[in-house]
Amino acid sequence: MRGTFQDTPRDAPRDAPQEDARTLEHLAPPEQHGTPRASEPISPGFQRAAGGPGSIPMSDVNAPAPAYAQHHRDAPLPERYDPYSAPEAAVLDPAGEVGPGESRRRRLEREDAAGRKIGGLWRGRGCFSKGGCYGRPGREGRLRRRWYLFIGLFFLIIVVLAIALATTLTRKSDETQVQSKWVNLTNYPPIQTGIMTIAGTEPQVQNSGCVNIETMWSCYLPKGTQQTENKPFDGNEPTFRVEIRYRNGTSNSTTSSNSTTIKRGVWTADPSPPSIADQTFLGNTTDGNAKPFAGEETPFYLSVLSAVHLTSTNVFRRSNSSIIPAPTEDSDGTPAAATLYPLPSSQPVRLYNRGESSEHYGFYTYFDKSIFLQSKAPLNNSVVDYDSEDKSGGSTKAEAQARCTWSQTRFLVQIWTNPSGMGYSLLSSSGSSTNATATSTATSTSSTATSSSSATDYTRPGSFPYPVTVTVDRHGGDAEKKRVYCWGIDENGHYNFTEGKLQIENRSVGGTLVNPALTSSDSSSAYGGIDGGTGGCECQWVNWISTS
Protein backbone atom coordinates (compact mmCIF):
# COMPACT_ATOMS: atom_id res chain seq x y z
CA MET A 1 0.00 0.00 0.00
CA ARG A 2 1.49 3.32 -0.91
CA GLY A 3 0.37 6.69 0.36
CA THR A 4 0.92 9.96 -1.48
CA PHE A 5 0.22 13.59 -0.84
CA GLN A 6 -1.93 15.26 -3.52
CA ASP A 7 -1.97 19.05 -3.94
CA THR A 8 -4.84 21.07 -5.22
CA PRO A 9 -5.12 21.00 -9.01
CA ARG A 10 -3.38 23.95 -10.59
CA ASP A 11 -6.19 24.61 -13.02
CA ALA A 12 -8.75 25.19 -10.22
CA PRO A 13 -10.16 28.66 -10.18
CA ARG A 14 -8.69 31.13 -7.60
CA ASP A 15 -12.08 32.00 -6.16
CA ALA A 16 -13.08 28.34 -5.76
CA PRO A 17 -13.12 27.23 -2.13
CA GLN A 18 -9.88 25.64 -0.97
CA GLU A 19 -9.75 22.61 1.20
CA ASP A 20 -8.21 23.21 4.65
CA ALA A 21 -6.06 20.14 4.37
CA ARG A 22 -4.60 18.07 1.71
CA THR A 23 -6.60 15.04 0.87
CA LEU A 24 -4.87 11.80 1.71
CA GLU A 25 -6.00 9.22 -0.68
CA HIS A 26 -5.48 5.59 0.05
CA LEU A 27 -5.19 3.51 -2.96
CA ALA A 28 -5.89 -0.05 -2.21
CA PRO A 29 -3.74 -2.38 -4.20
CA PRO A 30 -5.58 -4.54 -6.54
CA GLU A 31 -6.25 -7.92 -5.41
CA GLN A 32 -3.48 -10.22 -6.28
CA HIS A 33 -4.42 -13.58 -7.30
CA GLY A 34 -1.92 -16.19 -7.84
CA THR A 35 1.74 -15.36 -8.15
CA PRO A 36 2.72 -11.80 -7.07
CA ARG A 37 4.11 -9.51 -9.70
CA ALA A 38 7.65 -8.41 -9.45
CA SER A 39 8.09 -4.76 -8.47
CA GLU A 40 8.97 -2.49 -11.26
CA PRO A 41 11.20 0.57 -10.89
CA ILE A 42 9.41 3.84 -10.45
CA SER A 43 10.21 6.46 -12.97
CA PRO A 44 11.65 9.77 -11.82
CA GLY A 45 8.71 11.65 -13.21
CA PHE A 46 6.29 9.66 -11.16
CA GLN A 47 8.34 10.20 -8.08
CA ARG A 48 8.28 13.95 -8.60
CA ALA A 49 4.57 13.93 -9.24
CA ALA A 50 3.94 11.76 -6.23
CA GLY A 51 6.29 13.55 -3.82
CA GLY A 52 5.51 17.16 -4.56
CA PRO A 53 7.89 20.06 -4.69
CA GLY A 54 10.86 19.92 -2.24
CA SER A 55 10.37 16.29 -1.31
CA ILE A 56 13.14 13.69 -1.43
CA PRO A 57 12.95 9.97 -1.57
CA MET A 58 13.13 8.12 1.70
CA SER A 59 15.90 6.00 0.26
CA ASP A 60 18.17 9.06 0.17
CA VAL A 61 17.76 9.80 3.91
CA ASN A 62 20.69 8.51 6.06
CA ALA A 63 19.81 6.56 9.13
CA PRO A 64 20.95 8.08 12.51
CA ALA A 65 24.24 6.81 13.99
CA PRO A 66 23.86 4.16 16.61
CA ALA A 67 24.50 5.12 20.27
CA TYR A 68 28.21 4.80 21.36
CA ALA A 69 28.76 1.98 23.72
CA GLN A 70 32.19 1.81 25.50
CA HIS A 71 33.64 -1.64 25.58
CA HIS A 72 36.09 -2.86 28.18
CA ARG A 73 39.73 -2.70 27.08
CA ASP A 74 42.95 -3.71 28.76
CA ALA A 75 44.36 -0.13 28.75
CA PRO A 76 42.48 3.17 28.83
CA LEU A 77 42.75 5.56 25.96
CA PRO A 78 45.05 8.59 26.44
CA GLU A 79 43.54 11.83 27.65
CA ARG A 80 42.17 14.07 24.99
CA TYR A 81 43.81 17.50 24.92
CA ASP A 82 42.00 20.65 24.07
CA PRO A 83 42.36 21.61 20.43
CA TYR A 84 43.44 25.15 21.38
CA SER A 85 46.89 26.06 22.76
CA ALA A 86 47.29 26.90 26.47
CA PRO A 87 49.92 29.18 28.11
CA GLU A 88 53.10 27.55 29.42
CA ALA A 89 52.15 27.98 33.05
CA ALA A 90 48.86 26.05 32.49
CA VAL A 91 50.55 22.87 31.29
CA LEU A 92 53.37 22.75 33.91
CA ASP A 93 53.49 19.98 36.43
CA PRO A 94 53.41 21.63 39.91
CA ALA A 95 55.42 18.80 41.39
CA GLY A 96 57.95 18.68 38.59
CA GLU A 97 60.91 20.81 37.56
CA VAL A 98 60.23 24.52 37.17
CA GLY A 99 61.15 25.99 33.83
CA PRO A 100 63.18 29.16 33.28
CA GLY A 101 60.13 31.25 32.52
CA GLU A 102 58.40 30.29 35.74
CA SER A 103 61.60 30.84 37.73
CA ARG A 104 61.96 34.33 36.33
CA ARG A 105 58.33 35.13 37.09
CA ARG A 106 58.69 34.00 40.68
CA ARG A 107 61.92 35.95 41.12
CA LEU A 108 60.31 39.12 39.83
CA GLU A 109 57.35 38.57 42.15
CA ARG A 110 59.68 38.26 45.13
CA GLU A 111 61.56 41.37 44.04
CA ASP A 112 58.34 43.34 43.75
CA ALA A 113 57.16 42.08 47.14
CA ALA A 114 60.44 43.13 48.76
CA GLY A 115 60.21 46.55 47.11
CA ARG A 116 56.68 47.06 48.41
CA LYS A 117 57.71 45.95 51.89
CA ILE A 118 60.60 48.40 51.99
CA GLY A 119 58.47 51.17 50.52
CA GLY A 120 55.91 50.65 53.27
CA LEU A 121 58.36 50.97 56.16
CA TRP A 122 57.46 53.77 58.58
CA ARG A 123 54.48 54.60 56.42
CA GLY A 124 52.45 57.42 57.98
CA ARG A 125 55.02 58.09 60.74
CA GLY A 126 56.78 61.38 61.12
CA CYS A 127 57.65 62.88 57.75
CA PHE A 128 56.84 59.69 55.85
CA SER A 129 53.81 59.73 53.56
CA LYS A 130 50.75 57.72 54.53
CA GLY A 131 50.67 56.27 51.03
CA GLY A 132 54.19 54.92 51.37
CA CYS A 133 56.93 55.13 48.81
CA TYR A 134 56.25 52.21 46.51
CA GLY A 135 57.44 53.74 43.26
CA ARG A 136 56.21 52.67 39.88
CA PRO A 137 54.96 49.13 39.32
CA GLY A 138 56.20 46.71 36.73
CA ARG A 139 59.46 46.61 34.85
CA GLU A 140 60.18 50.34 35.08
CA GLY A 141 59.82 50.33 38.86
CA ARG A 142 62.14 47.35 39.19
CA LEU A 143 64.81 49.05 37.10
CA ARG A 144 64.65 52.17 39.24
CA ARG A 145 64.87 50.21 42.49
CA ARG A 146 67.89 48.32 41.17
CA TRP A 147 69.66 51.53 40.27
CA TYR A 148 68.94 52.98 43.71
CA LEU A 149 70.32 49.81 45.31
CA PHE A 150 73.53 49.84 43.24
CA ILE A 151 74.14 53.53 43.94
CA GLY A 152 73.60 53.02 47.67
CA LEU A 153 75.96 50.04 47.78
CA PHE A 154 78.57 51.99 45.84
CA PHE A 155 78.59 54.84 48.36
CA LEU A 156 78.53 52.39 51.27
CA ILE A 157 81.63 50.63 49.93
CA ILE A 158 83.37 53.99 49.55
CA VAL A 159 82.61 54.89 53.18
CA VAL A 160 83.78 51.51 54.50
CA LEU A 161 87.02 51.68 52.51
CA ALA A 162 87.67 55.23 53.69
CA ILE A 163 87.23 54.25 57.34
CA ALA A 164 89.37 51.13 56.96
CA LEU A 165 92.19 52.98 55.24
CA ALA A 166 92.04 55.85 57.72
CA THR A 167 92.35 53.52 60.70
CA THR A 168 95.02 51.23 59.27
CA LEU A 169 97.28 53.66 57.42
CA THR A 170 97.39 56.30 60.14
CA ARG A 171 97.82 53.88 63.04
CA LYS A 172 101.39 53.39 64.09
CA SER A 173 102.51 49.86 64.72
CA ASP A 174 102.85 49.01 68.39
CA GLU A 175 104.75 45.80 67.82
CA THR A 176 108.23 45.63 69.23
CA GLN A 177 110.95 43.87 67.32
CA VAL A 178 112.29 40.71 68.90
CA GLN A 179 115.91 41.67 68.28
CA SER A 180 116.78 44.71 70.38
CA LYS A 181 118.02 47.98 68.90
CA TRP A 182 119.16 51.29 70.30
CA VAL A 183 116.89 54.33 70.49
CA ASN A 184 118.70 57.61 71.05
CA LEU A 185 116.49 60.61 71.82
CA THR A 186 117.69 64.14 72.47
CA ASN A 187 116.13 64.53 75.89
CA TYR A 188 116.66 61.03 77.26
CA PRO A 189 119.58 58.67 77.82
CA PRO A 190 119.93 56.07 75.04
CA ILE A 191 118.16 52.81 75.68
CA GLN A 192 117.61 49.59 73.81
CA THR A 193 114.10 48.55 72.78
CA GLY A 194 112.93 45.05 72.05
CA ILE A 195 112.94 41.83 74.04
CA MET A 196 116.00 41.32 76.23
CA THR A 197 117.09 39.06 79.06
CA ILE A 198 118.66 39.67 82.46
CA ALA A 199 120.10 36.23 83.08
CA GLY A 200 121.47 34.74 86.28
CA THR A 201 121.02 37.73 88.58
CA GLU A 202 122.76 37.54 91.92
CA PRO A 203 120.94 38.10 95.23
CA GLN A 204 122.02 41.36 96.85
CA VAL A 205 119.56 41.42 99.78
CA GLN A 206 117.60 38.51 101.35
CA ASN A 207 115.77 39.64 104.47
CA SER A 208 112.96 37.47 105.88
CA GLY A 209 112.97 38.66 109.49
CA CYS A 210 109.63 40.47 109.38
CA VAL A 211 107.68 37.31 110.41
CA ASN A 212 108.27 34.66 113.08
CA ILE A 213 108.14 31.81 110.57
CA GLU A 214 110.86 33.01 108.25
CA THR A 215 110.21 30.41 105.56
CA MET A 216 107.01 32.31 104.73
CA TRP A 217 109.17 34.93 102.99
CA SER A 218 111.57 33.54 100.42
CA CYS A 219 113.83 35.04 97.77
CA TYR A 220 113.90 31.74 95.87
CA LEU A 221 111.80 30.83 92.89
CA PRO A 222 108.92 28.48 93.80
CA LYS A 223 109.95 24.84 93.81
CA GLY A 224 109.00 22.75 90.84
CA THR A 225 108.93 23.89 87.23
CA GLN A 226 110.17 27.42 87.88
CA GLN A 227 113.35 26.30 89.66
CA THR A 228 113.93 23.48 87.19
CA GLU A 229 113.75 25.72 84.12
CA ASN A 230 115.98 28.32 85.78
CA LYS A 231 118.94 25.95 85.58
CA PRO A 232 121.94 26.20 85.51
CA PHE A 233 121.36 29.06 87.95
CA ASP A 234 120.28 28.55 91.55
CA GLY A 235 116.74 29.15 92.74
CA ASN A 236 117.67 32.52 94.26
CA GLU A 237 119.28 33.66 90.98
CA PRO A 238 116.20 34.28 88.83
CA THR A 239 116.35 35.21 85.15
CA PHE A 240 114.17 38.09 84.00
CA ARG A 241 112.90 38.63 80.48
CA VAL A 242 111.76 42.16 79.65
CA GLU A 243 110.33 43.99 76.67
CA ILE A 244 110.85 47.73 76.20
CA ARG A 245 108.76 49.59 73.64
CA TYR A 246 109.09 53.11 72.35
CA ARG A 247 105.92 54.99 71.54
CA ASN A 248 106.72 57.51 68.85
CA GLY A 249 105.18 60.94 69.24
CA THR A 250 105.09 60.90 73.05
CA SER A 251 108.52 62.35 73.79
CA ASN A 252 108.44 65.68 75.57
CA SER A 253 110.94 68.46 75.07
CA THR A 254 110.58 69.60 78.67
CA THR A 255 111.94 67.98 81.80
CA SER A 256 109.01 69.02 83.95
CA SER A 257 107.24 66.26 85.84
CA ASN A 258 103.92 68.09 85.51
CA SER A 259 103.60 67.40 81.80
CA THR A 260 100.25 66.49 80.35
CA THR A 261 99.22 62.91 80.83
CA ILE A 262 99.43 60.93 77.61
CA LYS A 263 96.49 58.89 76.47
CA ARG A 264 97.91 55.44 76.13
CA GLY A 265 95.10 53.55 74.42
CA VAL A 266 96.49 50.09 73.74
CA TRP A 267 99.48 51.03 75.87
CA THR A 268 97.39 50.91 79.05
CA ALA A 269 99.38 49.50 81.96
CA ASP A 270 98.28 46.27 83.63
CA PRO A 271 98.13 46.66 86.56
CA SER A 272 97.59 50.39 86.71
CA PRO A 273 100.65 52.34 87.87
CA PRO A 274 100.67 53.83 91.38
CA SER A 275 99.54 57.40 91.87
CA ILE A 276 102.01 60.25 91.50
CA ALA A 277 101.54 60.99 95.22
CA ASP A 278 102.55 57.44 96.11
CA GLN A 279 105.57 57.59 93.78
CA THR A 280 106.61 60.92 95.23
CA PHE A 281 106.35 59.60 98.79
CA LEU A 282 108.39 56.44 98.20
CA GLY A 283 110.83 58.21 95.89
CA ASN A 284 111.63 60.62 98.69
CA THR A 285 111.57 58.32 101.74
CA THR A 286 112.61 54.90 100.41
CA ASP A 287 114.34 55.05 97.02
CA GLY A 288 116.44 58.16 97.66
CA ASN A 289 115.54 59.95 94.43
CA ALA A 290 116.33 63.57 93.72
CA LYS A 291 113.63 66.06 92.83
CA PRO A 292 111.25 65.49 91.21
CA PHE A 293 110.91 62.44 93.48
CA ALA A 294 108.35 60.81 91.15
CA GLY A 295 110.69 61.15 88.16
CA GLU A 296 109.87 62.35 84.65
CA GLU A 297 107.63 60.85 82.02
CA THR A 298 109.30 59.09 79.10
CA PRO A 299 108.02 57.58 75.84
CA PHE A 300 109.15 54.11 76.93
CA TYR A 301 107.04 51.25 78.26
CA LEU A 302 108.31 48.08 79.92
CA SER A 303 106.72 44.65 80.24
CA VAL A 304 108.09 41.72 82.22
CA LEU A 305 107.73 38.45 80.31
CA SER A 306 107.87 34.93 81.64
CA ALA A 307 111.33 33.39 81.43
CA VAL A 308 109.95 29.87 81.89
CA HIS A 309 107.30 27.87 80.05
CA LEU A 310 104.35 28.06 82.41
CA THR A 311 101.02 26.38 81.73
CA SER A 312 98.41 28.97 80.81
CA THR A 313 95.54 28.84 83.31
CA ASN A 314 92.71 31.11 84.33
CA VAL A 315 93.03 32.41 87.88
CA PHE A 316 89.90 33.06 89.95
CA ARG A 317 89.30 34.56 93.37
CA ARG A 318 86.35 33.45 95.49
CA SER A 319 84.07 36.07 96.97
CA ASN A 320 84.56 36.26 100.71
CA SER A 321 83.14 38.63 103.31
CA SER A 322 85.74 37.59 105.89
CA ILE A 323 88.56 39.88 106.96
CA ILE A 324 90.91 37.30 105.45
CA PRO A 325 91.00 37.81 101.67
CA ALA A 326 89.80 34.94 99.51
CA PRO A 327 92.58 32.84 97.97
CA THR A 328 93.22 32.62 94.25
CA GLU A 329 92.41 29.40 92.41
CA ASP A 330 93.05 27.82 89.05
CA SER A 331 90.15 26.85 86.81
CA ASP A 332 90.19 23.32 88.26
CA GLY A 333 89.63 24.60 91.81
CA THR A 334 93.17 23.95 93.02
CA PRO A 335 95.35 26.75 94.45
CA ALA A 336 96.98 29.06 91.93
CA ALA A 337 100.73 28.78 91.37
CA ALA A 338 103.12 30.43 93.79
CA THR A 339 104.60 33.77 92.70
CA LEU A 340 108.00 35.29 93.44
CA TYR A 341 107.64 38.27 91.11
CA PRO A 342 104.82 39.52 88.83
CA LEU A 343 104.55 39.87 85.06
CA PRO A 344 103.27 43.44 84.59
CA SER A 345 102.69 44.76 81.08
CA SER A 346 103.06 48.20 79.46
CA GLN A 347 104.30 49.91 82.60
CA PRO A 348 105.28 53.55 81.92
CA VAL A 349 109.01 53.98 82.49
CA ARG A 350 110.12 57.16 84.28
CA LEU A 351 113.50 58.87 84.37
CA TYR A 352 115.00 59.64 87.80
CA ASN A 353 117.94 61.82 88.89
CA ARG A 354 118.59 63.34 85.46
CA GLY A 355 122.24 64.21 84.86
CA GLU A 356 123.49 62.70 88.12
CA SER A 357 125.68 59.64 88.63
CA SER A 358 122.60 57.81 89.95
CA GLU A 359 120.55 58.62 86.83
CA HIS A 360 118.29 55.69 86.01
CA TYR A 361 115.09 54.59 84.33
CA GLY A 362 112.61 52.77 86.51
CA PHE A 363 109.10 51.86 87.55
CA TYR A 364 107.35 49.93 90.30
CA THR A 365 104.02 48.22 90.78
CA TYR A 366 102.21 46.14 93.41
CA PHE A 367 101.33 42.45 93.34
CA ASP A 368 100.44 39.50 95.61
CA LYS A 369 103.54 37.48 96.46
CA SER A 370 102.72 33.88 97.41
CA ILE A 371 104.44 30.69 98.53
CA PHE A 372 103.49 27.05 99.22
CA LEU A 373 104.49 25.54 102.57
CA GLN A 374 104.62 21.91 103.60
CA SER A 375 104.43 22.95 107.25
CA LYS A 376 101.19 23.96 108.98
CA ALA A 377 103.04 26.19 111.42
CA PRO A 378 101.41 29.40 110.08
CA LEU A 379 97.97 27.87 110.77
CA ASN A 380 98.45 26.43 114.29
CA ASN A 381 100.00 29.46 116.03
CA SER A 382 103.46 27.90 116.05
CA VAL A 383 106.40 30.28 116.22
CA VAL A 384 108.87 27.81 114.76
CA ASP A 385 108.84 26.26 111.31
CA TYR A 386 109.68 22.66 112.08
CA ASP A 387 109.70 21.51 108.43
CA SER A 388 113.06 21.93 106.72
CA GLU A 389 111.49 21.17 103.32
CA ASP A 390 110.09 24.70 103.24
CA LYS A 391 113.50 26.29 102.96
CA SER A 392 114.76 27.63 99.65
CA GLY A 393 111.43 28.42 98.05
CA GLY A 394 108.81 26.57 100.09
CA SER A 395 107.34 23.28 98.91
CA THR A 396 105.88 22.02 95.69
CA LYS A 397 102.17 22.40 95.03
CA ALA A 398 101.59 18.66 95.31
CA GLU A 399 103.14 18.46 98.80
CA ALA A 400 101.82 21.77 100.15
CA GLN A 401 99.58 21.97 103.20
CA ALA A 402 99.33 25.76 103.24
CA ARG A 403 99.56 28.69 100.86
CA CYS A 404 100.60 32.09 102.21
CA THR A 405 100.05 35.39 100.42
CA TRP A 406 101.73 38.76 100.88
CA SER A 407 99.26 41.21 99.33
CA GLN A 408 100.38 44.66 98.12
CA THR A 409 104.04 43.69 97.76
CA ARG A 410 106.12 46.18 95.77
CA PHE A 411 108.05 45.16 92.63
CA LEU A 412 110.71 47.76 91.70
CA VAL A 413 112.94 47.82 88.59
CA GLN A 414 115.86 50.28 88.26
CA ILE A 415 117.95 50.59 85.06
CA TRP A 416 121.19 52.47 85.73
CA THR A 417 122.08 54.61 82.70
CA ASN A 418 125.40 55.94 84.10
CA PRO A 419 127.17 52.74 85.19
CA SER A 420 130.63 54.32 85.24
CA GLY A 421 129.40 57.03 87.60
CA MET A 422 127.94 54.40 89.93
CA GLY A 423 130.95 52.11 89.59
CA TYR A 424 128.83 49.21 88.29
CA SER A 425 130.10 46.53 85.92
CA LEU A 426 128.01 43.79 84.36
CA LEU A 427 128.51 40.23 85.52
CA SER A 428 130.31 37.84 83.23
CA SER A 429 129.35 34.25 82.59
CA SER A 430 131.95 33.15 85.14
CA GLY A 431 130.68 35.60 87.75
CA SER A 432 133.45 38.20 87.38
CA SER A 433 132.87 41.73 86.16
CA THR A 434 132.83 42.93 82.61
CA ASN A 435 132.88 46.43 81.22
CA ALA A 436 129.34 47.88 81.33
CA THR A 437 130.02 51.36 79.96
CA ALA A 438 127.11 52.13 77.64
CA THR A 439 127.64 54.15 74.53
CA SER A 440 125.81 57.43 74.12
CA THR A 441 124.91 56.83 70.51
CA ALA A 442 122.23 54.60 69.12
CA THR A 443 124.48 53.32 66.37
CA SER A 444 126.85 51.56 68.73
CA THR A 445 125.40 48.09 69.16
CA SER A 446 128.51 45.98 69.37
CA SER A 447 128.45 46.02 73.17
CA THR A 448 125.40 43.76 73.18
CA ALA A 449 126.07 41.69 70.10
CA THR A 450 125.53 38.00 70.75
CA SER A 451 125.49 34.93 68.62
CA SER A 452 121.80 34.39 69.39
CA SER A 453 118.74 36.58 69.53
CA SER A 454 118.54 39.08 72.37
CA ALA A 455 115.18 37.57 73.33
CA THR A 456 116.63 34.11 74.00
CA ASP A 457 120.10 34.89 75.33
CA TYR A 458 120.10 33.14 78.72
CA THR A 459 123.84 33.29 79.24
CA ARG A 460 124.82 35.45 82.21
CA PRO A 461 124.43 38.43 82.33
CA GLY A 462 121.93 38.24 79.43
CA SER A 463 121.38 40.65 76.55
CA PHE A 464 120.37 43.73 78.56
CA PRO A 465 123.09 46.38 78.09
CA TYR A 466 122.70 48.30 81.38
CA PRO A 467 123.14 47.32 85.04
CA VAL A 468 119.73 46.54 86.52
CA THR A 469 118.48 46.24 90.11
CA VAL A 470 115.25 44.33 90.80
CA THR A 471 113.71 44.71 94.27
CA VAL A 472 110.76 43.05 95.99
CA ASP A 473 109.85 44.71 99.31
CA ARG A 474 106.93 45.67 101.55
CA HIS A 475 106.99 49.45 101.19
CA GLY A 476 103.96 51.39 99.98
CA GLY A 477 100.70 49.87 98.82
CA ASP A 478 97.04 50.16 99.78
CA ALA A 479 96.59 50.07 103.56
CA GLU A 480 93.14 48.47 103.31
CA LYS A 481 94.40 45.59 101.17
CA LYS A 482 97.88 45.10 102.61
CA ARG A 483 97.98 41.87 104.65
CA VAL A 484 99.79 38.59 105.17
CA TYR A 485 97.48 35.57 105.37
CA CYS A 486 97.59 31.81 104.92
CA TRP A 487 95.01 29.21 103.87
CA GLY A 488 95.20 25.49 104.55
CA ILE A 489 95.25 22.89 101.77
CA ASP A 490 93.60 19.48 102.23
CA GLU A 491 94.90 16.13 101.09
CA ASN A 492 92.99 16.43 97.80
CA GLY A 493 94.93 19.55 96.84
CA HIS A 494 92.06 22.01 97.40
CA TYR A 495 91.72 24.83 99.87
CA ASN A 496 90.44 24.04 103.34
CA PHE A 497 88.34 27.14 103.98
CA THR A 498 88.06 26.33 107.67
CA GLU A 499 91.80 26.90 108.01
CA GLY A 500 92.57 30.55 107.37
CA LYS A 501 94.74 32.79 109.47
CA LEU A 502 96.18 36.31 109.36
CA GLN A 503 99.89 36.66 110.13
CA ILE A 504 101.67 39.32 112.14
CA GLU A 505 104.23 41.29 110.13
CA ASN A 506 106.92 43.63 111.46
CA ARG A 507 107.50 45.97 108.51
CA SER A 508 110.02 48.12 110.37
CA VAL A 509 112.48 45.35 111.23
CA GLY A 510 116.03 46.42 110.40
CA GLY A 511 115.03 50.01 109.60
CA THR A 512 112.67 52.89 110.26
CA LEU A 513 109.23 53.29 108.71
CA VAL A 514 107.72 56.59 107.63
CA ASN A 515 103.92 56.82 108.02
CA PRO A 516 103.42 53.12 108.91
CA ALA A 517 100.06 51.67 107.98
CA LEU A 518 99.59 49.58 111.14
CA THR A 519 99.44 52.61 113.47
CA SER A 520 96.29 54.52 112.69
CA SER A 521 97.25 57.43 114.93
CA ASP A 522 100.52 57.97 113.06
CA SER A 523 99.25 57.19 109.57
CA SER A 524 98.29 60.27 107.58
CA SER A 525 97.01 60.74 104.06
CA ALA A 526 99.04 63.94 103.82
CA TYR A 527 102.13 61.88 103.11
CA GLY A 528 100.66 60.47 99.92
CA GLY A 529 101.63 56.89 100.81
CA ILE A 530 102.26 54.40 103.59
CA ASP A 531 105.15 52.35 104.93
CA GLY A 532 107.91 54.52 103.56
CA GLY A 533 111.43 54.59 104.89
CA THR A 534 113.52 51.45 105.32
CA GLY A 535 113.27 48.00 106.85
CA GLY A 536 111.00 45.00 106.52
CA CYS A 537 111.22 41.85 104.43
CA GLU A 538 113.06 42.39 101.16
CA CYS A 539 114.64 40.62 98.18
CA GLN A 540 117.03 42.31 95.77
CA TRP A 541 118.78 40.93 92.68
CA VAL A 542 121.39 42.59 90.46
CA ASN A 543 123.21 41.79 87.22
CA TRP A 544 126.28 43.82 88.20
CA ILE A 545 129.06 44.07 90.72
CA SER A 546 130.48 47.22 92.23
CA THR A 547 134.03 48.10 91.20
CA SER A 548 134.35 51.24 93.31
Automatic annotation (TrEMBL):
The keyword Cell division does not apply. The chain crosses the membrane at residues 147-169. Residues 8-25, 71-82 have a biased composition (Basic and acidic residues). The keyword Isomerase does not apply. It comes from the Eukaryota. Residues 250-261, 435-456 have a biased composition (Low complexity). Residues 1-111, 249-274, 435-458 are annotated as: Disordered. Keywords: Membrane, Transmembrane, Transmembrane helix. This is Glycoprotease family protein. It comes from Penicillium frequentans.
